[in-house]
Structure formats: C-alpha cells, structure tokens
Amino acid sequence: MVTTDPKTQVDESPIVVSEIVVDGRRLAAREPLRFEVTLHEDEDGTLYVLEGDFGIRCYGESRSELGEVLQETLELYWSEFAQADPGELSPKAKELRGQLLERIAVGTDGA
Hints:
There is one protein chain. The protein is an alpha+beta fold. The chain has 2 helices and 5 strands. The protein has helices at 63-82, 91-103; strands spanning 15-22, 25-42, 45-52, 56-60, 104-109. Strands 1, 2, 3, 4 and 5 form a 5-stranded antiparallel β-sheet that branches. A hairpin with a 2-residue loop joins strand 1 (15-22) and strand 2. The protein is globular, with a radius of gyration of 17 Å.
C-alpha cells in the first residue's frame, strides 16, 4: 500500500471564477472564467503558476496566495481597463477592455 503525506499533496485543479467584487460592486462572469494551475519546481523552490482568461498569468508560493493574486489582478484589470475611457487606451488595452465587458456583467452592490 502506498500512502502520501498530505503536506506534500499538490492541488493543480483549475480555479474557476463566477464572480468578483470590486469596490463593493458585484461583477458576475457571464460564463465562468477558468484558470489552469500548475506547479513549477526549480533550484529556487516551488511556485504555483496560474494561466487563463484575459491572458492572465500569476504566481504564488501557495494555492491560497495564488487565489489572492488572481483576485487582485482581476480587480486591477476591471479598474484599469474596463472602466477606462477607451480613447485613452492603446489598441491592445482596448481589446482587453472589450473582452472584459463582453465576459463580465456589473451587478448590484454587496459582497
């Protein structure tokens, strides 16, 4: 029988986001956002890597840290791109803005 130490088990299941709250406003994904999680090990240590929708790529030392970084990144993307004046954005940023507005609906206040 093979047993494993729970401390060494790695959760590489995708992170799926159906909503986020930014500045007290609930933002619902029209279809869930999906982010793949992998674990990378090298001479410097172990790092979780997340990649997915909107070209997001985040890093964290733990899965929970990865979730926090993803939340902060989604908040930043919404604030800096979706809510920006399109006339002030580069062509790539306008494309990202369009993707955000197409995939995420603004809901009501509350967390």
